[in-house]
Amino acid sequence: MSAYPKFQHGKSRFDQNTFFGRFRHFLDVIDPGTLFVTEKRLQECVKLLDQFKQGSLPPGVTDAQLWRAQKIKQAIIHPDTGEKILMPFRMSGFIPFGTPVVVGLLLPNQTLVSTIFWQWLNQSHNACVNYCNRNASKPAPVHKFIQGYLGAVTSAVSIAVGLNVLIKKANRFSPTTRLLVQRFIPFPAVASANVCNVVLMRHSELSEGISVLDDNGNVVGTSRVAARHALLETALTRVVLPMPILVLPPMIMAALEKLPLLQRRQKLVLPVHSLVCLAAFSLALPLAISLFPQMSEISVNELEPEIAAATDCKILTYNKGL
After folding, report:
1. CB neighbours of residue 49 within 10 Å
2. pTM of the predicted model, to two decimals?
3. Tally of CB atoms within 10 A around 287
4. ∠ CA 277-278-280, rounded to 5°
């Protein structure tokens, strides 16, 4: 029996009603192998999917080929704009391009300048990822993006610098305890800034609304209620995402640095630290974005009256973005 179910265009081959199904789906979404897909291969995938929609598939095309083609297209092309997403800002590029930033955030004995630099770089990367993977069913002005970016960077840097100053003034902590606490400072700074980043970057969705779709994928209307749900779900994933990344590595490294091998060979500390961060990042990203389906459902009764009047469906869907 084939490991691939019958192909459905625009759907996932994994059950999106369960966490495990979404987890397996997003492992596909973040697969870094799609970063190396050539333009020729991408166009072949797009053509194959177009032929499927038109009912003109060449003979011998399998469900496995169709699912792989859809995986490649969804990893590279934005579902709303139809444009290619820049490589560092794709979900498949989030781990390889984001891990060096995480390593920098968690470096011990940070100076004021290094703290500001790594927080700025992290929120810059997050802002671009949020923007490139947003719900783009409604156009948003560029100045909203700039406002969100400045707000996220300001909040992250302010919180991180403020906590660092407080810890350095806490005389009752021993040097070892102070170092351990400083390693955990990035989490509250990043988590709070991530929420600000999502809300500020996608604030226009709250006023303009986002498209809600029926069972056939047809747009029923534009809903501000659905936009609030989408932003809340995305903000929650951005709080959960840095937990394993910024909490587990400091705990693991505090234990590993006591090992005789790392005490004798200090040059190994950074490579080991990087591997620990990479492992935590690889686990945290699919776990966080699997909390909610990308295409979320909402009851028509919760939406605006004009939308309820425009459809006989009881449940509509919306793209919450990533």
Report:
1. 20
2. 0.72
3. 18
4. 65
Task: Name the token pair of 153.
Answer: 């960077």
Residues whose CB falls within 8 Å of the CB of residue 90, separated by 6 or more in sequence, listed in order: 34, 35, 75, 76, 132, 133
Given this model, what pLDDT does residue 140 score?
A: 66
In angstroms, rounded to a whole number, what is the distance separating the alpha carbons of residues 203 and 150? 13
Predicted confidence at residue 113, as pLDDT, reads: 86
Token digits for 19?
């966490």
Report the distance separating Cα 146 and Cα 97, nearest Å: 22
277 within 8 A of 292, measured Cβ to Cβ:
no
What are 298's strand-pairing partners?
A: 316
Report the C-alpha gap between 267 and 260 in whole angstroms: 13
Secondary structure (3-state) at 255: helix
Angle between helices 242-256 and 175-184 (to 10 degrees): 150
Q: What is the distance in angstroms between the CA of the first residue and the CA of the last residue of the chain?
A: 33
Number of H helices, E strands in the chain: 14, 4
